[in-house]
């Protein structure tokens, strides 16, 4: 449970402003992403969705390698001082781009890494999207350090998902339908990269006096190595289930799992909404020797995240058959998988928020916990997936994330000398009441169940948590004047 410590009023106001902006971005992203999933599932089917999911997983893995932890580590580089922030951003761009081009070359020469069945070898050009992902991530990390969160919202929550949705729908009715999802994804990321890099260049200006230096960028990469390792392990934790499932099942089952995973990830996007504003504030607090302030930031944001995420998990999980049935009758069989993945998102929220503190306070301990969690997930997945399929993959993920969250919060609390606990009793009480309401409505016909449970759970939880859980500091999130 959370401590009673609260952030200073000015810091709470900054967290609230960033949280409002990014939560608005989450709602915008949801408004575009959900239609994409429905249209893609119905227009392309689970088989093509499965091939798309696997190829995207590989490309994003290579991009994560090339980013070298700079999505979060760039804030620490800029906070170090001693040189202009513009130079740190330029180093990040060049370092990331160089590694991205290397990864692209590997995928270009070995397209079977993206398309293990061999059917997609002709789409080796899909590998060219890796540099766009990396440049976008580094640019948005630099802008977040200056609290320019609205750029990430515009690029990732408006431009990227809507270009993806519109392009995938249009391409489904052309001769390029077989590659439609991959082409749409590439177009959306190019558009998002343009909307990220250009604002960063305007915000920071030309890096006057900057010269590329392999030694300096090598030192940057070395400093970010623990964070890069943790990012890769965390990335692997969230993709290992899909990878192992793909090795034991065909594209169709992977496609069913992918849709359930994407629906569950909508809840996880709530937590990600606060990352851009929380990371720079945590890095400054830890660097300047204010560990208790860092803990207060984490506890405050953790409560906000869970108070939004828990009702979404209940609202999507309780009528799971109906929610997945929107994508087509074949997808309704994944209701148990969806319930497990949604619960895993709650564990991921606690794990990821605690990790944001650990990467600045105890980066090596964080990497060790991340590696141990991944090992646990791998063992559990290999035991459960052959027997239970998608449900086994989701269950292994849930257990690994829950253990990782507990370990990270305990270690971070000791490192900061202050309690780090994101849950409060009010969350459990409001969640229990909302769950009881949703469970009572499960006897209704499927359509009516969704119409009653989804808005009913959200409204009931919101009313209870606002009345009994939110204090003055918590309500700063909704005061637009701050």
Order of H and E elements = HHHHHHHHHHHHHHHHH
> How many discrete domains?
1
Poorly predicted sequence stretches spanning 5 or more consecutive residues: none
Major sheet, described briefly?
Answer: none
**Helix coverage percent:** over 70%
State the distance separating the first and last CA atoms: 27 Å
Number of helices: 17
Q: Structural class of the helix and strand makeup?
A: mainly alpha
Number of strands: 0
Task: Give your account of this protein's structure.
The protein is mostly helical. Helix content is 79%, strand content 0%. It starts with 8 loop residues before the first helix and ends in a 14-residue tail after the last helix. The chain contains 17 helices and no strands.
Question: What is the structure about, briefly put?
Answer:
By secondary structure, the protein is an all-alpha fold. The chain has one domain (9-478).
């Amino acid at each position: 449970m959370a401590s009673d410590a609260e952030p200073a009023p000015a810091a709470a106001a900054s967290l609230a402003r960033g949280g409002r902006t990014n939560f608005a971005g989450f709602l915008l992203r949801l408004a575009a992403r959900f239609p994409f999933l429905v249209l893609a599932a119905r227009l392309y089917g689970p088989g093509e969705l499965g091939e798309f999911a696997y190829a995207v997983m590989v490309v994003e893995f290579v991009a994560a390698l090339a980013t070298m932890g700079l999505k979060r580590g760039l804030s620490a580089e800029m906070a170090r001082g001693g040189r202009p922030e513009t130079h740190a951003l330029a180093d990040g761009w060049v370092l990331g781009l160089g590694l991205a081009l290397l990864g692209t070359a590997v995928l270009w020469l070995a397209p079977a890494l993206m398309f293990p069945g061999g059917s997609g070898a002709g789409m080796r050009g899909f590998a060219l999207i890796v540099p766009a992902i990396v440049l976008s991530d580094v640019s948005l990390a630099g802008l977040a350090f200056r609290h320019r969160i609205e750029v990430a919202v515009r690029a990732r929550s408006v431009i990227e998902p809507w270009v993806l949705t519109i392009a995938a729908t249009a391409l489904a009715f052309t001769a390029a339908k077989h590659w439609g999802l991959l082409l749409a994804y590439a177009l959306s990321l190019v558009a998002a990269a343009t909307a990220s890099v250009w604002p960063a260049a305007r915000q920071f200006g030309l890096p006057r006096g900057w010269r590329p230096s392999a030694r300096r960028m090598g030192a940057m990469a070395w400093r970010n190595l623990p964070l890069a390792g943790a990012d890769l392990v965390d990335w692997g934790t969230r993709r290992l289930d899909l990878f192992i499932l793909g090795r034991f099942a065909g594209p169709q089952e992977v496609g069913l799992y992918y849709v359930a995973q994407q629906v569950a990830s909508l809840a996880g996007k709530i937590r990600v909404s606060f990352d851009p504003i929380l990371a720079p504030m945590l890095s400054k607090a830890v660097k300047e020797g204010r560990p208790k302030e860092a803990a207060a930031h984490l506890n405050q944001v953790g409560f906000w995240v869970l108070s939004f995420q828990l009702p979404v998990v209940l609202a999507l999980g309780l009528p799971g058959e109906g929610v997945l049935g929107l994508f087509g009758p074949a997808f309704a069989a994944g209701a148990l998988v969806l319930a497990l993945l949604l619960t895993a998102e709650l564990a991921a929220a606690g794990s990821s928020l605690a990790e944001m503190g650990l990467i600045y306070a105890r980066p090596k301990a964080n990497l060790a916990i991340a590696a141990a969690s991944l090992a646990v997930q791998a063992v559990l997945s290999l035991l459960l997936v052959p027997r239970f399929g998608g449900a086994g993959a989701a269950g292994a993920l849930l257990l690994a994330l829950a253990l990782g969250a507990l370990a990270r919060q305990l270690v971070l609390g000791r490192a900061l000398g202050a309690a780090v606990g994101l849950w409060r009793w009010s969350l459990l009480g409001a969640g229990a009441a909302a769950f009881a309401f949703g469970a009572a409505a499960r006897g209704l016909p499927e359509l009516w169940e969704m119409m009653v449970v989804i808005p009913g759970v959200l409204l009931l939880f919101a009313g209870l948590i606002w009345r009994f859980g939110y204090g003055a500091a918590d309500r700063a999130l909704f005061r637009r004047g701050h």
